[in-house]
Amino acid sequence: MKRITFYLDFISPYAWLAFERLPEVLEGLTYSVTYQSVLLGALLQQHGNPGPAGIAPKRDWTYRHVTWLGHAQGTPLQMPARHPFNPLPLLRQALACSDDGSINRYVAGTVLRHVWQGGADALDPARLATLAEALAEQVRPGQDVNSDGPKALLRANTEAAQAAGVFGVPAFGVDGKLFWGLDGLPMLRAYLDGDAWFDGPAWDAVSQLPSGLPGKP
């Protein structure tokens, strides 16, 4: 059985779309998924990437695009009242439900729906209280959203993701290979199906391709 690590940050609409799409894409396969919440901002900062929201025209396009993608794939998606926002309260709430940094699908889905369904403010205090109540039975003994435990797990998850080469979310790790983005799901499926392309040189060859820009390796 293949074991997939799903790296996500709840601030990402593509993570929500991929979360909903994954079971359909992998239908008929035997696999397990470990959900690892990470801090997207730290991944972007590592590579000097401002992210889509850091470029005004790209921000508009991204929000327009994901809203249409939700419509096209039948996944309810409404932009929250404010975006981007600080996802730390949501990440820590999710990781209060974990002993080892992984969260189950129920926890991941509950937090993602909190953000991406209804169009409300993801950080509204009353809504955060309702979210905490919905996850209360999932919280691990000794963990609390404001304790050091979830903070340490988030730091460890993010550092492990960086070490694995994760540069954005959603990302999917399996057998030492990394598949990025909602549009990477068909490629992930092909790999799990045993597509012979992955036995050839193309996967590794691209990393040896030199850049034609001055000062770039």
From TrEMBL:
<dbReference type="GO" id="GO:0018845">
    <property type="term" value="F:2-hydroxychromene-2-carboxylate isomerase activity"/>
</dbReference>
<dbReference type="InterPro" id="IPR044087">
    <property type="entry name" value="NahD-like"/>
</dbReference>
<dbReference type="GO" id="GO:1901170">
    <property type="term" value="P:naphthalene catabolic process"/>
</dbReference>
<protein>
    <recommendedName>
        <fullName>2-hydroxychromene-2-carboxylate isomerase</fullName>
        <ecNumber>5.99.1.4</ecNumber>
    </recommendedName>
</protein>
<feature type="domain" description="DSBA-like thioredoxin">
    <location>
        <begin position="4"/>
        <end position="192"/>
    </location>
</feature>
<dbReference type="InterPro" id="IPR014440">
    <property type="entry name" value="HCCAis_GSTk"/>
</dbReference>
<keyword id="KW-0413">Isomerase</keyword>
<dbReference type="GO" id="GO:0006749">
    <property type="term" value="P:glutathione metabolic process"/>
</dbReference>
<dbReference type="InterPro" id="IPR001853">
    <property type="entry name" value="DSBA-like_thioredoxin_dom"/>
</dbReference>
<dbReference type="InterPro" id="IPR036249">
    <property type="entry name" value="Thioredoxin-like_sf"/>
</dbReference>
<dbReference type="GO" id="GO:0004364">
    <property type="term" value="F:glutathione transferase activity"/>
</dbReference>
<feature type="active site" description="Nucleophile">
    <location>
        <position position="12"/>
    </location>
</feature>
<comment type="similarity">
    <text>Belongs to the GST superfamily. NadH family.</text>
</comment>
<dbReference type="GO" id="GO:0004602">
    <property type="term" value="F:glutathione peroxidase activity"/>
</dbReference>
<dbReference type="Pfam" id="PF01323">
    <property type="entry name" value="DSBA"/>
</dbReference>
<dbReference type="InterPro" id="IPR051924">
    <property type="entry name" value="GST_Kappa/NadH"/>
</dbReference>
